[in-house]
Amino acid sequence: MTQPTPTANPATGQHDLAEEFLDRTTPLSRLRGVMHRYPAISPAVVLVIAIIVFGMLNERFLNPANLSLITQQVAVVGTLAIAQTLIILTAGIDLSVGAVMVLSSMVIAQFTVQNGLPPIMGLIAGLVVALAAGALNGFLVTRLRLPPFIVTLGTLNVFVALTLLYSNGATVRGGDMPDLLTWTGTTFSVGGVNFTMGVLLMLVLYVVIAFILSQTAWGRHVYAVGDDKEAARLAGISVSRVLMSVYLAAGAILAIGAWIQIGRSNAASPNAGTDLNLDSITAVVIGGTSLFGGRGTIWGTLLGALIVGVFRNGLSLAGLDVLWQTFAVGVLIVLAVSVDQWIRKVRK
Amino acid sequence: MTLIDGSTAAGAPAPVREPILTAKKLVKTYGRVVGLDGVSLELYPGEVLAIIGDNGAGKSTLIKCLTGAEVADEGEITLDGKPVQFKRPQDAHAAGIETVYQTLAVSPALDVASNLFLGRELRRAGLLGSVFRMVDKKGMRKRAKQELSDLGISTLQDVTVAVENLSGGQRQAVAVARAAAFGSKVVVLDEPTAALGVRESNQVLQLVKNLRDRGIPVILISHNMPHVFEVADRIHIQRLGKCAATITPQSHSMTDAVAIMTGARKA
């Protein structure tokens, strides 16, 4: 009854909507809206274009054998990138994923070969060590409230040193290991293209994590915590519990990555993972996940990992120096982050 | 709780309404600074109680004590006639006191339905829910739509749109809807119109009235006198850590209220 001053009728609501409608009618802003809603679109487009271009540059690129090689090259970093995605979605970052994976792989190999335990026990030991590493990172982030960047920069060095101390810097050869440990390197054929069990395992992990992130309450809470920690807390979500579970889940995924790594290189080497820490971040970022947390998809990360694999492989088939591959990946990262920044401007 | 109320009032149908939430002689000091100096307050079903006061008058402290963000040194709080102790915001939340904070506690990247159900997601029925822990997206969207239309929020038709794509008023509406949904007993709104334009403020005020019409009592903290006078049934004026007066928009004018608030006039 007491209608206040100038405007308070239903028409104003429509006016509001009309204004918002006007405000996004340019094709560019509409594109931005779509990319904002589906962050995996841009990496998908980049991947398709890259495959077409490299296919035209060199006919060997689209060979089944070469495509198989690309998937194998992507398997380990693609798995680590799953763990990295979970952590980046919470607005964190993990510089130690590669180091944890290598430590876990050395534990798996040494427990089985040196200590003569059954291979399944070796795998479990590797899982326990990776979980402990995740728990340490998670503890430092949630209890001591240290920034994830600093925490994992520190634990990166700790884990690298532990790996070298534990293994005496020695590689364990695949030939000395029981078959179960190198099982991830065995191949099967689908329509003339050979895939390894490691690639299959990685894909299964993507499906599982994609399901969890999109279909469970926990998945939503991961996004909510990364999006706005305080808002999540006020909504009744236990932020430290979510963060801790994310670091533990990452640890478990890294242990599986360690197994895939042993199969891929048919060895467990303490020096295997130095590039993988940053490569996993590269895959996540190129896959459209925001480093500021709360936005991105796990499928984008798979696309990001594939893009890096395709670029490296395609450029090398095109006869370019390996340094140009690194150069191209660097350019991709900067482009991906710029696109993310541009997309985020949708926020008012 | 209705049972208990019914049993106390059994026999004689009492015309006097029992307050839902009361605070008696709350005292809160921060070192030598007295934040609250024996403040009492009563909130009745279906009313909008505004709390106004100058900066430092103790209105934030009062609200913090009522919503569990601070624990009062002395005094008693009752909800539905029973004494309650809120040690953390979650305690007040669990007891049915929902607070909409000035810094809107919504997750920008999640959609409207997900925000309404954040922290209390619905699960799918059967094995999909119990074993695979799947959330019931369809059900949540349906219920979210229902809640929004019950509250008369007409500007939010699409509950699948991300909150970051909404205007300030619409976001406020999401936050208020979340507080009002799920059978809460009391809704506390802290400066709900402070960051909004004229039109959006009016939408939020309309929302406050809708809440009251549904029987949910509202505590409204605001600096904005016209807004307070438009929606409040009673106005609690804080001054220097005490309740200077409790007035109604009918008994006093805005000028009176400001005079009491600043101490230029006694109530």
From TrEMBL, chain B:
Alphabetized CDD domains for the sequence: ABC_Carb_Monos_I (cd03216)
SUPFAM superfamilies with a match to the protein in the record: P-loop containing nucleoside triphosphate hydrolases (SSF52540)
SMART domains reported in the protein's UniProt record: AAA
InterPro entries (UniProt xref): AAA+_ATPase (IPR003593), ABC_carbohydrate_import_ATPase (IPR050107), ABC_transporter-like_ATP-bd (IPR003439), ABC_transporter-like_CS (IPR017871), P-loop_NTPase (IPR027417)
ABC transporter domain segment(s): 21-265
Record keywords: ATP-binding, Nucleotide-binding
One Pfam family of this chain: ABC_tran
Signal sequence bounds: none
A GO molecular function held by the record: ATP hydrolysis activity
UniProt-recorded name of the protein: ATP-binding cassette domain-containing protein
